[in-house]
Structure formats: C-alpha cells, structure tokens
C-alpha cells in the first residue's frame, strides 16, 4: 500500500470542526477548484508571489503542481507539508507547515489560504492551531513564524489570537508596488498560554523520520 512507502498519506490532524490531511487525486482537483473560484478580492494581493492573478484554469493547475512539487522534493532536512483542510467533509482550503533542519533549528513556518466563501468563520484560526499543535507537541519545535502584509488584518488577527508577537517588518515588491510584510513569531511558552483548540493526531509515528525526528 502507498502508506507503507510514503506514510504522510496516513497522517490526520483533527479539531472540533476540521480534518487536515493529504488529499486524494479527486480531492486535489476539488481543492484546485476552490482556489480557482477565488481566495481574495481582485483589489488585494495577500501573496508574495501573485499566483492568483492568473486565469482561473491556471490558478487551479498551479495548486495541483505546487502540491506535487512539495511532495516530490521532500527531504527530512528541508520539507513543506501542505494539508488539505476539510470542514464538514467539504474541501475549504490549504494549511502548510514546513521547516529546515528542524532537529537542530527547532523552528517551523506556516502558511495558508481559504476559499472566499469559507472565510470569516474561524476556520483559519482552527486550521493553524492544528499544525501548531503538531509542531509543538510532536515535532519538538520551539518557535513558529508567519507573516502577513500590512493590508491583511484578518491574517494578523489569527496570529495574535494564537499568541504570536511582532517580529519586525520586511519590504517586498508585489504587483509593481512596495508592500510591507509584518513578521510574527510564536514561542512554545506563548503557544501554551493561548492554546484553546483541542487537536488529535493519527498516523504520525511512521512519519517522524520524514520530519527529521530520530526515533531510535
């Protein structure tokens, strides 16, 4: 079976409302369609690489290719896992977590997107809480980092709610204009003080070596 050779396909994170896991081919197609239907209004761009400015068919294809690329380039020293997020059985978005040299650096980074029709329902907070639980309770992380543009208050609000603290600013060129990127950092101690969402994890043990975790 595939899970015997690539155990990440058996990994499941669950919160009271959500399930996070790798998608089947059909579910990946649905995820691509959710992105093509819209993640944000045309007047804003929340991503450093404006991949959602493409025609909808190309946006969908980009989601599929990015999913395959991350898994195909997987290394225990440099990995990024993009979970598909399910709410009441429906595909609603994507939550990623990644790290380099996690066993030494002890830091993860996260990123996410939600289809527009699923936003403003607390799903973004819950799905990030799931991967933070994975990082801090199972993968030995000591800090998590994220960022959001200054004109993306919703993402910044999620970070603050989960205990992140400001970690400086960066300047980037997006759509031909300068944007301010607000970095955020979450320590294990602040995460513990702010955690309120219960998370269960299944299928993790065989995955640990893929995350660079020594199980010997």
UniProtKB/TrEMBL annotation:
<dbReference type="InterPro" id="IPR016181">
    <property type="entry name" value="Acyl_CoA_acyltransferase"/>
</dbReference>
<dbReference type="Pfam" id="PF13302">
    <property type="entry name" value="Acetyltransf_3"/>
</dbReference>
<keyword id="KW-0808">Transferase</keyword>
<protein>
    <submittedName>
        <fullName>Succinyl-CoA transferase Rv0802c</fullName>
    </submittedName>
</protein>
<dbReference type="InterPro" id="IPR051908">
    <property type="entry name" value="Ribosomal_N-acetyltransferase"/>
</dbReference>
<dbReference type="InterPro" id="IPR000182">
    <property type="entry name" value="GNAT_dom"/>
</dbReference>
<feature type="domain" description="N-acetyltransferase">
    <location>
        <begin position="18"/>
        <end position="189"/>
    </location>
</feature>
<dbReference type="GO" id="GO:1990189">
    <property type="term" value="F:protein N-terminal-serine acetyltransferase activity"/>
</dbReference>
<dbReference type="GO" id="GO:0005737">
    <property type="term" value="C:cytoplasm"/>
</dbReference>
<dbReference type="GO" id="GO:0008999">
    <property type="term" value="F:protein-N-terminal-alanine acetyltransferase activity"/>
</dbReference>
């Amino acid at each position: 079976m595939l899970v015997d050779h690539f155990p990440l396909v058996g990994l499941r994170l669950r919160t009271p409302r959500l399930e996070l896991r790798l998608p089947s081919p059909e579910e990946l197609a649905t995820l691509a369609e959710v992105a093509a239907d819209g993640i944000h209004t045309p007047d804003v761009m929340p991503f450093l690489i404006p991949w959602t400015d493409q025609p909808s068919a190309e946006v969908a294809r980009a989601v599929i290719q990015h999913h395959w690329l991350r898994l195909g380039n997987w290394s225990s020293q440099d990995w990024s896992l993009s979970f598909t997020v399910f709410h009441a059985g429906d595909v609603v978005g994507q939550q990623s977590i990644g790290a380099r040299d996690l066993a030494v650096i002890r830091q993860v980074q996260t990123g996410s997107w939600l289809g527009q029709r699923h936003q403003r329902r607390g799903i973004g907070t819950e799905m990030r809480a799931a991967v933070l639980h994975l990082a801090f309770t199972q993968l030995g992380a000591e800090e998590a980092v994220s960022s959001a543009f200054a004109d993306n208050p919703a993402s910044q609000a999620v970070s603050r709610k989960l205990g992140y603290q400001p970690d400086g600013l960066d300047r980037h060129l997006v759509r031909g204009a300068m944007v301010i990127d607000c970095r955020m950092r979450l320590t294990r101690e602040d995460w513990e003080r702010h955690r309120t969402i219960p998370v269960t994890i299944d299928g993790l043990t065989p995955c640990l070596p893929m995350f660079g975790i020594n199980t010997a």
